[in-house]
Amino acid sequence: MAETARGAEIILDGVSKHYPKSIALDDVSLEVRAGEFMTFLGPSGSGKTTTLNLIAGFTELTTGSVYIDGKQMDRVPVHKRELGIVFQHYALFPHLSVFDNVAFPLSERRVPKAEQKQRVLAALETAGLKGYEDRFPKELSGGQQQRVALARALVFEPRVLLLDEPLGALDKKLREQLQLELRRVHREVGRTFVFVTHDQEEALTLSDRIAVFSAGRIEQVGTAKELYEKPASRFVAEFIGESTVVESEDGTTVTIVRPERGELVRDAAAAGPGRPAIPVTVRQAIYLGSGWKFEIVLPDGAVGVVRGERELDWIAGGTGEAVLTWDPALAPVLPA
Ligand code: ADP
Ligand code: MG
Q1: Tens of pLDDT along 245-262?
Q2: What is the DSSP letter of 137?
Q3: Where do the ABC transporter domain residues begin and end (predicted)?
Q4: How far apart are CA 208 and CA 193, in angstroms?
Q5: Distance from the CA of 154 to the center of ligand 1, in angstroms?
Q6: For the structural domain made of 4-235, what CATH number should be given?
Q7: Could you give the CA distance from residue 265 to residue 121 in angstroms, rounded to a whole number?
C-alpha cells in the first residue's frame, strides 16, 4: 500500500448516548491522533462499542459532536465517512470468493477492474493471505476469515480503521499471532486504528495509547506505561495489570503495590525505617523460571501478589507469615 498513507485525527467532543432506560455513554471527550493505534479497553457494557458506532455513524448522538480530520460528522452518513470496519461478527459474503469479498468495496466505488485486481492482491498480501484468492469463506479457518475481513477493510485505503473485538472469537494462540500481525499492518499502512477489547493484555500488546472505559465514561487515556505506573483511579489500577491493593486504616485511600514493587520480608524490623510494614499470609509460592510469584492475603482478607527473585528462606513449603513492604515513592495512593 502507498507509502504516503496517512491516518485521520478523530475528536469526540462531549459525546453522550442515552437510551430510554440507560445511559450508554456519558459526556465522553477524546482525541485520537492521526496514525495512532488507539485501544478502547473496559469491561462488557462500559460503552466501547457504542463509541465506535458513534464514530462510524451507525448510531445517532444524544449530545456532542464527532470530528474526523476537523470535519464535523453529525450529518455525514456511514458510507461517506470512508472508514474501514472489522467487527467480531462482521460476516463475509459466503457466496463470494476471497477475491470478490475483498474487491466488494472497490466494486461499490466503481474502481476500474485492473486497478481492483492490483489493490485486492496488495491488501491480501498485507493481511497475510497471498494465494487464497479463489477460496470461499467456508474453506477458511476463523483466523483466516478475520484476515479477509481485515483485507476488505483496508482495500479502499480508509484513513481510519475501526475494529470491534475482531480477535474475540479466536483461540489464545491464534489471537496472539494475529495481534502481532495487526501491529505490523498498522505500521505498514500508517492509518489510524481504533481497536476495542476487554482484554487488558491485548490492549497492552497492541496500542500506542489506551482509553479505559467504565460505566459509560473514560476513566483515563494514556500509554500502557502511564496507565500501569500512574493510574488515575482505583478502577484503572485494578483493571490494568496485577497489584496488591492496600487500604488505609481509615478506609479513604488505597495504595497500589505492583507485584515487582512489593517486597516480602521476615518481620517489620526487616522492612527498614520509614517503610510500610503490613503483616500478610503467604498462601502460595509459584516458581516461574524467571523468579517467584507469591500469592498473599492481607489482614482485611484481600488477596495480593508479589514477585521476588528468591524463595522466602524462613517459609517452608511456600506458605507462612511474612511482612509486605514497598518504596512509598513507587506505589500510587488513590481514593478508595
Ligand atoms: P461494550 O461494547 O463496552 O460492551 P456497549 O457500548 O455495547 O458496551 O453498551 C454500553 C451500554 O449501553 C450497555 O449497558 C448496553 O446495555 C447499553 N446499550 C447498548 N446498545 C443499546 C441499545 N440499542 N438499546 C439500549 N441500550 C443499549
Ligand atoms: Mg462491545
Answers
A1: 999 999 999 999 999 999
A2: G
A3: 10-240
A4: 10
A5: 27
A6: 3.40.50.300
A7: 60
Q: What is the pTM of this model?
A: 0.91
Return the bridge partners of 334, or none: 254
Q: Which atom of ligand 1 has the smallest separation from the CA of 52? A: 6
What is the pLDDT, as a whole number, of residue 3?
Answer: 42
Instruction: Give the Cα separation of 207 and 55 in Å (integer).
Output: 19
Within 45-104, strands assigned E span 63-68, 71-72, 83-87
Domain ranges of the chain: 4-235, 244-335
Ligand 1 site, residue 252, Cβ cutoff 6 A: no
Q: Which helix (H) or strand (E) holds 140?
A: none
Under DSSP, the state recorded for 9 is P
Nearest-atom number in ligand 1 for the CA of 49 is 2
In 3D, which of 313, 249, 310 has the Cα closest to residue 278?
249
Question: pLDDT tens, 52-89?
Answer: 999 999 999 999 999 999 999 999 999 899 899 998 77
4 CB near ligand 1 (under 6 Å)? no
Count of Cβ atoms closer than 10 Å to residue 162 Cβ: 25
Residue 333 CA to residue 336 CA, distance in Å, equals 9
Determine the distance separating the centroid of ligand 2 and the alpha carbon of 88, expressed in angstroms: 9
pLDDT at residue 117 greater than cutoff 90:
yes
Going across the sheet that includes 160-164, the strands are: 83-87, 160-164, 192-197, 37-41, 209-214, 217-222
Say if ligand 1 is within 6 A of residue 50 CB: yes
Q: Could you tell me the three cell numbers for 130?
A: 497471498
